[in-house]
Amino acid sequence: MANSTRQAPIDLKRMRQVVEVARAEAITPAAETLSITQSALSRSIADVENQLGVQLFHRVHRGVKLTEAGERFVARAKRLLSDIDDLIADVTTADELDTGRLRVGAAPAGYAGYTVASMRDFVEENPGVSVEMETGTPQALCPALVRGELDLIVGASAYLQRWRELELRALLPMQFACMVRKDHPLAGRNDLSELDVLQFPIVLPRSIEPMHSDIGLRYAHYGMRLQPQYVTDDFTMTTSIVSATDAFYPIMHARRSFADLEEQFHLIRDVVEIKPHDVSIAFARSLPKTRAAERFEELLATSLGLD
After folding, report:
1. Region 12-92: CATH code
2. Longest CA pairwise span in the chain (Å)
3. Would you say domain 96-172+278-303 falls under CATH 3.40.190.10?
């Protein structure tokens, strides 16, 4: 039964927690998104229910469902939180491009290279803005974007689209190939099979974990296990290894950039079945874009030849 005694207002942090649990329909994934422990989130939800004097969630098998009171609470909470976010954005972005900040993520880490030109243009245009660049896996950075700890992510669409909380814009089509030295035993052959390629040593970057998963599935298809003989995030080291050995390097690159690589290496295309990705920019659906993020998006699109 509802408690008619006047209660202290619920803080915004707990209100966001209730909304996230309702979205996830389970405590565990909501706790992961919010970066708190499952027990702490459960206690917080229980505290809100006790404070309101109503039950917000039914505990069901493998999750939770909103009660009628919970549905009313979450609907109003979403509108309230959106209004508060808009208010904060209006106040804090008034002079944002003079003194604000821009927080950019690159996921996987190698996609930071596509931001170099736009980042240079942005800092030249807005010298008073603080800029932070964070690189990592989509699994690490996408929840941070949802929580508002980043303004945007530049990365591979195939990985970013797994987060339904994100809004994506594809910017640049990519192509997959396996890079080998010019005189590699596979170079010039027209009858190559996927298995022919996978039997050679492989070079993989440590930081692009999703690529490991995609490649690993191709090995598993033939009952093989992915065991990289060489692991390095240094592309100069990678090219040295490929030039000196029979190893191949799986690479996802902009189509127009392959011409530069083909001057030094042989590229094996359309043999290993890896789905091509797009370079995309991602924003959190629930959060307003900052003026700095909007301007960076414009510069990024221009640098990639879209405008």
Report:
1. 1.10.10.10
2. 81
3. yes
Structure tokens at 159: 């990985």
Q: What tokens appear for 304 in the block?
A: 């990639």
Amino acid at 221: H
CATH architecture of 173-269: 3-Layer(aba) Sandwich (3.40)
Structure tokens at 269: 């295309």
For the chain, what are the domain ranges? Answer: 12-92, 96-172+278-303, 173-269
Instruction: Give SS3 for 269.
Output: strand
Distance CA 114, CA 172 (A): 10
- At 51-61, the pLDDT tens digits run 999 999 998 88
Is 290:106 a contact under the CB 8 Å cutoff?
no
Count CB neighbours of 164 within 10 A: 8
The reply to whether domains 96-172+278-303 and 173-269 share a CATH topology is yes
Strands 152-156, 278-284: pairing is: antiparallel
250 and 239 Cβ atoms separated by less than 8 Å: no
Q: What is the DSSP string of 105-117?
A: EEESGGGGGGGHH
Residue range 157-200, pLDDT digits in tens: 888 988 999 999 999 888 889 999 999 999 989 899 999 999 99
pLDDT on residue 255? 60
| Cβ partners under 8 Å of residue 55, min gap 6 | 49, 67, 69, 70
Stretch 29-45: mean pLDDT? 91
Using CA atoms, how far apart are residues 4 and 16, in angstroms rounded to an integer?
Answer: 24
39: tokens are 């027990």
Which residue is it, tokens 């992510």?
153
CA-closest candidate to residue 180, choices 233, 276, 251? 251
Q: Which of 139, 92, 152 is nearest to 287 (CA)?
A: 152
